[in-house]
Amino acid sequence: NAGVMQNPRHLVRRRGQEARLRCSPMKGHSHVYWYRQLPEEGLKFMVYLQKENIIDESGMPKERFSAEFPKEGPSILRIQQVVRGDSAAYFCASSLTTDPTGELFFGEGSRLTVL
Amino acid sequence: GQSLEQPSEVTAVEGAIVQINCTYQTSGFYGLSWYQQHDGGAPTFLSYNALDGLEETGRFSSFLSRSDSYGYLLLQELQMKDSASYFCAVRDLAPNAGKSTFGDGTTLTVKP
């Protein structure tokens, strides 16, 4: 049973370009979360999605950032017109609806570098 | 909102016991979780406390006291491979019960 798959693992963009990060949750998981981590810092919540629905996007900047989790295919975190401050590791996690612990299963992350 | 505080760094020697504390301010939560992260890789789940008291899983134990807004992770018989970052996290109440808010993490260094 494959874990949470994220790609690309590393992405380099110049200022003003777009970054698209993809996440395939674990099989059977219907909840997806995106977290952002700066070096030596914690995991900052960005957005929580279920299939075709955004449940909570309170941690995601209103401008330039968007996320989706379509009926078919992976979840996508999209960052438009990237700036240097967007350089970070972006982690995707998934969970089971029925797990009372709410255990999150994380991918290896996508490391975005903005030049 | 939710906020959690942890010490930024802890150092201990191999074979020792170390306790990583987590204090929190929340508007309510389901439970307190702990995650381990090695070298910026994928965080992995260690333990979960829904109720007050101690939960033991092998060399790791976790404790929660809701009345004190406090929890801790206890690592026994430390091994070099335990050197990692450890994060406490609270799981929100419904309707966002899937969302977890993380502390900034504690970097544990285990020395020979």
Question: What would you say this structure looks like, in words?
Answer:
The complex is a heterodimer of chains A (115) and B (112). Chain A is mainly β. In chain A, 0% of the residues lie in helices and 49% in strands. Chain A contains no helices and eleven strands. In chain A, the strands form two sheets. In chain A, strands 2, 4, 5, 6, 9, 10 and 11 form a seven-stranded mixed beta sheet that branches. A four-stranded antiparallel beta sheet of chain A has the order 1-3-8-7, with no helix packed on it. In chain A, β5 and β6 form a beta hairpin. Chain A is globular. The termini of chain A are far apart. The mean pLDDT of chain A is 93. Chain B is mainly beta and 112 residues long. Chain B is 0% helix and 56% strand. In chain B, the strands form two sheets. In chain B, strands 2, 4, 5, 9, 10 and 11 form a six-stranded mixed beta sheet that branches. Chain B has a five-stranded antiparallel beta sheet with strand order 1-3-8-7-6, with no helix packed on it. At the A-B interface, β4, β5, β9 and β10 of A face β4, β5, β9 and β10 of B.
Topology diagram in text:
The complex is a heterodimer of chains A (115) and B (112).
Chain A: E1 5-7, E2 10-13, E3 19-24, E4 31-37, E5 43-50, E6 53-56, E7 65-68, E8 75-79, E9 88-95, E10 105-106, E11 110-114
Parallel strand pairs in A: 2-11
Antiparallel strand pairs in A: 1-3, 3-8, 4-5, 4-9, 5-6, 7-8, 9-10, 9-11
Chain B: E1 3-5, E2 9-13, E3 18-25, E4 31-37, E5 44-49, E6 53-57, E7 60-65, E8 70-75, E9 84-91, E10 100-102, E11 106-111
Parallel strand pairs in B: 2-11
Antiparallel strand pairs in B: 1-3, 3-8, 4-5, 4-9, 6-7, 7-8, 9-10, 9-11
